[in-house]
Amino acid sequence: MVEVFKTNVTEVELSEILIRQLLHHFPGSRVNFDLEDCDKILRVEAKAVVPEKIIEVLNANGYSCEVLL
């Protein structure tokens, strides 16, 4: 399952920190950002993706995050 999110993350260093945090909650998943995209895409690929938890992790770090439809 792949879920794609729109974020306001702009810095590579911060995206790496967020990826580590997300991998802590979703071990074995694939997580990456596309900061070149206008929507600052966050892509999470896992057996089971919980969008609310991903949004919660980013919000807790001061970033906006919403499921990209």
Briefly summarize what is shown.
With 69 residues, the protein is α+β, with helices and mostly antiparallel strands.
What are the salient characteristics of this protein?
Alpha-Beta Plaits, 69 residues, 4-stranded antiparallel beta sheet, HMA domain-containing protein
Descriptive account of the structure:
The chain contains 2 helices and 4 strands; from the N terminus they run βαββαβ. The chain has a single domain, classed as Alpha-Beta Plaits, CATH 3.30.70.100. Helix content is 35%, strand content 28%. It has a 4-stranded antiparallel β-sheet, covered by helices on one side. Helix 1 crosses helix 2. The protein is of the alpha+beta class and 69 residues long. This is HMA domain-containing protein. It comes from Mucilaginibacter humi.
